[in-house]
Amino acid sequence: MSESNSVEKRILESLKSKFGESILEDGWEGALAPKRIKTFASREKIVEVAQAIKELGFDQVISQGGTDYPKDDIFKVNYHLIAVDNEELKPIILSLATKLPRNDPKMSTLTNVWRSAEFHEQETFENFGIFFEGHPRMERLLLPEDWDDIPPLRKEFTLPGR
Amino acid sequence: MVSSGSAISVFAGKVNDLLGTIVEQSVKEPIRYIVNWGRLYALWPVHLETACCSVEFGAASGPRFDLERFGMLEAFGSLRQCDLLVVQGTVTRKMAPRLQWVYEQMPEPKWVIAMGACAISGGLYIDSYNVIQGIDKIIPTDVFIPGCPPRPETLIQGIIELQNKIRRSRVRS
Amino acid sequence: MEVVERQGDYLTMSVGPQHPGSGHMRLIVTVDGDIIVKVKPDPGYVHRGAEKMCEVRTYIQNIPHLERPVIIDSCGILFAYVLAAEELIGVQPPPRAQYIRIIMAELNRIISHMYWLSIYGIFMGHSTMFMWPMGDRELFIDLAASIGGTRVTFSYFIPGGVRNDIPPGFKEKALKTFDYFVKRLKEYEKIYFNNPLVLKRTQGVGVFKREDAISLGVTGPNLRASGVASDTRKDEPYSMYDTIDFDIPTYREGDSYSRAWVRLEEMRESMKIIRQAIDKMEAGPVKQPMRGQIKGKVGEAFARTEAARGTMFYHIVSDGGKFPYRVKISVPSFRNLIAMSHLLEGNRLADMPVIYWGLDYWPVEADR
Ligand code: SF4
User: Fold this and answer.
1) Measured between alpha carbons, how far is C188 from C121 in angstroms, rounded to an integer?
2) Is B36:B166 a contact under the CB 8 Å cutoff?
3) Cα–Cα distance between C72 and C153 in angstroms, integer?
């Protein structure tokens, strides 16, 4: 266990030394789950943290999505990162999360760090109405052109008949 | 003189009409039969896939099921030459206007088959926010083939049903 | 195809959603002569809102609609969901179930690659190559159907195991099919992969450089054709893949031809995996009994698996209720979309079908 966890620990330590304790996601005790690392960054700092994570060797955004928490009045945005070209980091999935207030859902884009985030961010934009500043094409992707309702994955959007 | 002439011409006209009707009635049935027969075994489906049912449509044109045995030809790219529209699965709100355009661009006579539960009623996705619940809301549909996805055999049965319908259909002169 | 606008020497036109190829997506292509200058993909014609629907269905009810996005690879797409859901529910599948899962996932990989190969034949106007794989695919469909019950949509994986055990006599039937198919693959190589027509149309077309493939977020066979030996089955072995010995076929060229080769080799490896899994399997239960309402514990889980088109990723958030709070599905085809526009730019319009289908882009999967 300790053997297999050493890489995760090392990555977390190096991020901690740069950005302090704020890198730990609340309610998550370090990198103890095997092959999973969860980190957190405030929206002001996220580009910096992302840059540091990229330098560690995580080269692809495998998924990016939001979650709506109307109770706490926030959106959470998760970037899930993998490393396809780094033998040591291959088994690990790193999640980088941030929180946005619901009345001002804006953050700067990470497409400059990872190009693969482009379409994911576009999808999150139309599903949640989260605006990514600096994204090359912040426009509709999957929904019909005449969509005039609220973004469908917000919790206050209810499916017809449910 | 004038009156008798007009009487003759009226009479001749009536005979003419009657003869015409007799001739028309006697050839109508054979012509209808021949025209329908011609349409029956040369159904060109449009190559329009709308969702996952297209996999079974592809399998049905493969060697195991071989739709061509039943007079259904390969899916074809140009819809100006097609007379059959098989709607293969879910039609979303974004696809619906395109489906209508495709239908309108096809030449008469044309038939529509709704393949799969999604095309019939929305199927598994009936409560989704982006799915049209049944294509008969947007285009006239002739045959409904149930299944999710329908097995190729079911598709074949649906096509035979359609052919029966064509066989019975009237021919407009 | 219709002309959208004309601007100087450039012509912008819209390809799809009804076009002679396969799939229902639109590409807005700007051409200069017959060289493609710019491509703007316009997906979303099959967007069915699966992620939203997950929030109003229980963990079990979610299974049928989650496998519909790629029904040719229905077990592959479900695998990651089941793994993530198991983590939240807190069940472990028995070892026999894990081997059966591997068998089904690999059978589905073969079925999916065969479908891909046959449609590739249509794209190149090689109709023999449509008929052969379509016919041979049915053998594997029969095998899978004898386990799962239906032709393509099995709903076979459930949290805690698989629905039922494999039928008696499966091993003999499978081995017979594999012996036949190994010979058949040799013939495919001869008639298809060494065919001058195919060589001309695919070799050196749509070359994906290694760095681009990594930075654009491509996964699966497309990435392996560009020289990156990345496969979730090896990187982060899930289920029982760590007990099985197999190779990852990797090519360095990164063109459409090597993308086809990767898939062909992968079918061989899949058969190898299934043979080993059948041998390693021991008798035992195939599912963990679960009673009452299944609820996930508060928290989140993510899992990834290697589906036929690349890495499948699920992120499930649970609030402790019977419905998942949020399910994020990240599919390989969606990630290939960005690569597609990158690859098409600078190529000829006539090469578009080959590049497009060479990436194995499946619109239903991408739109979910
Ligand atoms: S009926 Fe089933 S297989 Fe067909 S399109 Fe709908 S979900 Fe897909």
Assistant:
1) 12
2) yes
3) 8
Q: B96: Cβ–Cβ under 8 A, 6 or more apart, which residues?
A: B132, B138
CB < 8 Å to B54, chain C: 22
Residue-range definition of the domain harbouring residue A95: 3-133
Question: B92 and C48 in contact by Cβ < 8 A?
Answer: yes
pLDDT digits (tens, 9 = 90+) for C271-310: 888 888 888 888 888 888 777 777 777 878 888 888 888 8
Distance of CA C181 from the midpoint of ligand 1 (Å): 30
Chain B residues with CB inside 8 Å of C17's CB? 48, 95, 98
Rounded alpha-carbon distances, angstroms, from residue A77 to A131, C56, C145:
11, 21, 40
**Could you give the CA distance from residue C216 to residue C225 in angstroms, rounded to a whole number?**
14
Query: Per-residue pLDDT for A119 more than 50?
Result: yes
Q: What is the DSSP string of B4-44?
A: HHHHHHHHHHHHHHHHHHHHHHHHHHHHHHHHHHHHHT-B-
Q: Which of A126-130, B153-157, C23-27, C139-143 has the lowest mean pLDDT?
A: C23-27
Distance (Å, whole) CA B156 – CA B43: 13
The answer on pLDDT for B155 being more than 80 is yes
Yes or no, beta carbons of B51 and C153 under 8 Å apart: no
Q: How far is A128 from chain B (nearest CA, A)?
A: 15
CA distance C234 to C317: 26
Quickly count: other Cβ atoms within 10 Å of residue C218's Cβ.
31
Identify from B64, B74, B91, B125 which residue to disrupt to test chain C contact, counting C C-beta atoms within 10 A and taking the largest count: B64
CATH 1.20.1260.10 assigned to domain C50-367? The reply is no
The predicted structure's pLDDT at residue A30 = 43
DSSP designation for C349: G
Pocket of ligand 1 from Cβ distances under 6 Å: B 51-53, 89-90, 116-118, 123-124, 148-149; C 68, 71
Token representation of residue C300: 């989140």
Centroid of ligand 1 to alpha carbon of C60 (angstroms): 19
* Residues B1, B6, B12: CA angle, nearest 5 degrees: 130
In a domain, A13, yes or no: yes
Query: Is B128 an interface residue toward A (CB < 8 Å)?
Result: yes
- Which residue owns the Cα nearest ligand 1 atom 3? B149
Q: Chain A residue closest to C312 (CA)?
A: A62
- The verdict on residue A121 lying in a domain is yes
A15 in a domain, yes or no?
Answer: yes
Q: Read off φ and ψ for residue B76, nearest 5 degrees.
A: -125, 145
Task: Using alpha carbons, list the distances in angstroms from residue A127 to A47, A154, C49, C136, C300.
Answer: 22, 7, 10, 41, 20
How many domains is chain A partitioned into structurally? 1
Q: Measuring from atom 5 of ligand 1, which residue has the nearest CA?
A: B89
Name which of B93, B127, B128 is nearest A144 (Cβ-Cβ). B93
Q: At residue C84, what is the residue type?
A: A
CA A123 to ligand 1 centroid distance, Å: 24
Does residue A138 lie in a domain region?
A: no
Please, what is the average pLDDT of chain A? 78
Is the pLDDT at B133 greater than 80? The verdict is: yes
Residue A68: CATH number of its domain: 3.30.460.80
CA of B122 to the centre of ligand 1 (A): 9
Average pLDDT over residues C209-227: 84
Q: Are C314 and C81 within 8 A, CB to CB?
A: yes
Q: Domain limits of chain C?
A: 50-367
What does DSSP assign to residue A149?
S
